[in-house]
Design goal:
With about 170 residues, the chain is of the alpha+beta class. The chain contains 6 helices and 6 strands; from the N terminus they run H-E-E-E-H-H-H-H-H-E-E-E. Strands 1, 2, 3, 4, 5 and 6 form a 6-stranded mixed sheet that branches.
Amino acid sequence: MECQNCRQDGYKQKMRETTDQFSYKECGLNNVFLKNWQGLVCPRCSLSVPSFLPNAELASCLIAREVLLSGAVLNGNQILFLRKLMKLSPAESASLLGVDLDYFDCIEADKAVLKKVDEVKLKTIISGYVVLSLNRVDDITSRVSGCSGCLVAVYRLASCTLDGKIFVYMKVC
């Protein structure tokens, strides 16, 4: 695969395979990383791209679990992440918490802080959703067939928090 950054500069640079730690910014949080993950890196510009995520929904539930277990006050990005995980609109979330929509929008934008009682209510709702989701996918496996159709790899996702950073990692079983 060619590097997209280098291609824009008029170069044809082939990326090489690597196992590294990748920032998982797609989830919307700045402190989430894919640990010991396979991916590609450009030797010229150092652009790194992680390989596939076998089950993004499970990864999101694991991240949510780590956010909830941290015990820290939720910030706007975390509340937005948790709301999107549950597939709720801002209006639905505001209604669940019994707060005004404008106030809820300010909370997600970090212009206001969620009251402690509302934060406990939100964490309780999210915890129930995460527990149900993780129980439903108790031993998640994603199967990837090789070109012959007979090669099957089974992956298992796990997560942990260290120094405020959330790590999602994959084990090949």
